[in-house]
Amino acid sequence: MHRVGEQQQNGGGAQPIRVGEVYPATAVRLNDDGEGVVLLQGLVTFVPGLLPGEGATVRVVSVARHFARAERVSAVVEATEESVRTQPECAVFEQCGGCRLQHIHYGAQLRHKREVVRAALQRIGSLPELSVADTLGMDFPWRYRNQVQVPLSYDEETKTLLAGFFAAHSHRLIATQTCALEPLGMETTVAAVTRMLPDLLGREVRFVHHVVVRESYTNERQMVILCLRETLGHRQQQALRKLSTLPQVVGVAVTIQPRSHGPVWGKTVEMLTGESFLTEDMDDLEMLISPRSFFQTNTLQARMLYRYVRQQAQIVPGQRVLDAYCGIGSIGLYLAAQGAYVVGMESNPAAVVDARRNAAHNGLSNTEFVTGQVERELPRRVVSGERFDLTVLDPPRDGCRKEVLQAVADADSNRVIYVSCNPATLARDLVQLVHTGYRVETVQPVDMFPQTAHVECVVSLMRK
To answer: With bands split at pLDDT 50, 70 and 90, how would you rate the model's confidence at 4?
Structure first.
């Protein structure tokens, strides 16, 4: 990235653009993050908040070798009849780094996410012939989060605690007491916790850098987890138990994470008072959610995604199913309830404990959850002769390692279902699966995070 005044040499003889310079610009499309794409002197430049067909005056804020970034310094001066702009719900939308698409009509958001998946398959996977279904969205795409992580900042002078969210690409706190993606009950709890903490902890309140609130969509019960820079004394920990008197709060916990930026969770979570689990009804299953459990942030859309996976799986009782990167076992338990024998693999030991607990809680003995890295555990089992009729892959954003995809092919799975949160790594991995003998049958985007640029996708493959 160039400093102020440094030049970027563009090709084609165009004059280089410089940081701080102002240009008129018109957006031609959106990038994957929902930012407007303009050309300044031939250089691709990203402008947050500018939609295709809209023009504005922009100021260059950074220049790299192949792209630049700019900010809008005037109101939109031109918009086509096809403009999809709408009024954002949030007062700090342009400052907060959370929701990037609130200014876009929801139907257009769904179309954009389908295009993100389609473009990734074509550009990265060289799979242009694949048909991508319309994105599965929500009837009411607001107030859907069942977990929120809120950064806190203590003002020594005023002796007050500020809550909000970080600005885009920074750790600068944008103070706000509202978020249109939180249920109103969670919003109320965050405000109450922020108000109570200075009185409960005194000066030690400066050690609290995040408050995490989890809520059951099923019964609206909540759990409050405080993220601390260091361990508090016994008196302070006793004082924190008073947070359980808040109307919907049934449990209070703490986790120690010395760094206030980056991952908010420490190595362990200690319950101070109350219930250790929330419960969530997922069709015929009741899931137990511990403070640290990974569970999809949008319960309604998680149900929709799991139902789609179940539909594509076409389970015949007695089939062997691999649930790779299984987390707390949600997808695997959906399929076990259909009569499959499910082997779940997960590197996080705490998640495996949760998966086993959920299997027992739902009376499903046809499951086996093992702790281990999928890229090691799966090839080892396949070499030893283990086989699976169906493989479900639900990897993190980095996607699957090559040895995992090769082991899937070697395991003789007739069907593979790939659940992805990153269209780029999905496209890359589909190439290898196709090369090892699979054909893509369906590509279904799912909008797990309305108003944001994230898109989930479920791909079903069959052996050729």
So the answer is: very low
Residue 395: which pLDDT band, with cuts at 50, 70 and 90? very high
Q: How many CB atoms sit inside 10 A of residue 283's CB?
A: 11
Structure tokens at 197: 């903490």
Instruction: State the DSSP code for 128.
Output: T
CB 250 within 8 A of CB 221: yes
Distance CA 399, CA 432 (A): 12
Q: What percent of the chain has pLDDT over 90?
A: 85
- Rg from Cα positions in the chain: 24
The residues of the chain that CATH labels 2.40.50.140 are 1-83
Distance, CA of 9 to CA of 3 (rounded, Å): 14
* Tokens matching residue 18: 């410089």
Report the catalytic residues: 421
Fold of 1-83: OB fold (Dihydrolipoamide Acetyltransferase, E2P) (2.40.50)
Q: How far apart are CA 246 and CA 235, in angstroms?
A: 20
Query: How many other β-carbons are positioned within 10 Å of the β-carbon of residue 237?
Result: 18
Give 189-210 pLDDT, tens digit per residue.
999 999 999 999 999 999 999 9
Q: Which CATH class is domain 147-281?
A: mainly beta
What local confidence, expressed as pLDDT, does residue 158 receive?
Answer: 85
Enter the tokens of residue 10.
């563009």
| Fold classification of 298-463 (topology level) | Rossmann fold (3.40.50)
pLDDT for the residue numbered 143: 97
Measured CA to CA, the distance from residue 243 to residue 237 in angstroms comes to 11
